[in-house]
């Protein structure tokens, strides 16, 4: 079948015509190239990824990995692909779920793929099948996450270390430096095309909601609402900003104008509907927001509130003011779906989890969505919103991360948010990401972004946010102890440095360095070929190959010196990490080359911000004396990152053994902190025991209602940190078992592995177990 026929068959299968950028990207994939597709939210980028899946299924024994930045997205994509290709063809790997990992289509989080790449070829068992065997494509969804301060390096590691034969399908929001990003991908992987589209298939209209009307932000010459950059700022809003009016009536019926008010109709209509009249106060209440959206036919909608507590309060306010957006039939269907998800809960669990209030909001068509909710609750809200049974969701910005919740309108309560230390304005990228949820292709003909008016609104600043089309991605890549031992296990020190010079961070610092580093990597491969040819040859032929190798070796060394003299910031950081690991015994010199020691093999299995701290705790028996519940609590200490606005006081569980172990952990952290400072490496925050007593109680078998009431945290937060604890316990078990195979302290480390697995079993129960697939 020709490329054209394959693509035409795919287009017939999906049932809608491909846009120009989709067709171009698919054609490039069919030609054997990788692609970076940068396009607005809702434009249909995932169609390109779906074509990659289609191509992989047509190739014999070919596999495709579909990666997503968060588990919720992975789960959504898993269910979509199961529906398309059948459950037996699709696997899911998210850390806490391991389902059909050898399937031809596997959905996973990016961290899982990074760990898989590092483990490839270094596991025990000669002749074992590599998890990367037959891999033809990797989809990197939301690849602009590469700029994330905490997790962005994972994307770079994947792009750098995947086998060159694998084609990448990188999907990104519209970023202003997409060409730069694409040039880097081409430099490190070759044959990569950048496909850009600024066209939003569903036009987005911007509005400002006052206490009296919904006013368009931009209007044309005729006063009608227009999209950003197509008109001028509404003069009525200028009057509001200047304080010369308290809010007027927008001309036109509905959100885009016409004969009647596009905002609240009138008080008489409110009374006719049995509603309280709209208050004329300058401040717009959340119930008023709901009514305005309902009357202007902008539901379903998402209201972004940058506070979990604010989301919950908004639902309560709507219930108190009698908001109801559902029919009787809809309420019955909502009850049926929601009750099916909570039917196994006891009365006490229902009480502590707030099931009654949650159901009351759902039945009225209103819900909250944030990280503090129980995953089951969030899943139900997403399902009901997708089916248009829940009409309005009050959500934190985590909902803007690509979860499939199609809304006609998006409301932003305020244009600043608390970053943990102070209130800071939204960036153009954040505003674009949030408002990108409005207006979904194939569902809506137009989308609407609404900003709630307040005295602090700066129209020029708002116009800048609304008019910005893209934002740059900046690399956050830096070498870590775990990265260093994993890379040195795979290649020699010089090749590791060459590889790190290929990072996007270095590319942005000095693009010429990356081009030269790629040449060096190719020359290194040639040098290995010369050496191999010399070893096979005799007499004059051997001398000729050796002369070629000698000349090429000198050229490689010159190139390395040139690179080092330019910037070499990433490689120098790597050198400092190596020096530290040599000092601590995770590496040792052998003939000048650093080699991974048995303890280094243990460090290879520990991922995260505190990789070296965890390894040191295992190596020096810092966790001695802890039973399963105590180890679970300590792993929570080692993985927990408190929200900066709610750190709270450390709460240690009772018992001398835990207190002593906790003191040793802090002493170890302080020692490493000094070493990192001396080595001029980034330091980690001190471990925080805020949830230690909570996790200890849960691992000791206490009921969920008791645990949550004593802890003061939400069920969703508890489940999230329980999963983080499980993940670290699993890493510790694997690391200890690896160390035992390497010949280290079999009795002690073997016992620690056993206790880790027992602790994992104790934590993974009840609502934690029920949420493992969400």
From TrEMBL:
Record PANTHER family: ATP-DEPENDENT RNA AND DNA HELICASE, ATP-DEPENDENT RNA HELICASE SUPV3L1, MITOCHONDRIAL-RELATED
GO process annotations (BP): nuclear-transcribed mRNA catabolic process, 3'-5' exonucleolytic nonsense-mediated decay
Protein name: DEAD/DEAH box helicase
GO cellular component: Ski complex
Biased composition (Basic and acidic residues): 250-273
Disordered: region residues: 241-279
Signal peptide: none
Pfam families: DEAD, DSHCT, Helicase_C
Keywords: ATP-binding, Helicase, Hydrolase, Nucleotide-binding
Helicase ATP-binding domain sequence ranges: 26-193
GO molecular function: ATP binding; helicase activity; hydrolase activity; nucleic acid binding
Domain Helicase C-terminal residue range list: 288-488
Coiled-coil boundaries: none
Record SUPFAM superfamilies: P-loop containing nucleoside triphosphate hydrolases
Highest taxon in the source lineage: Bacteria
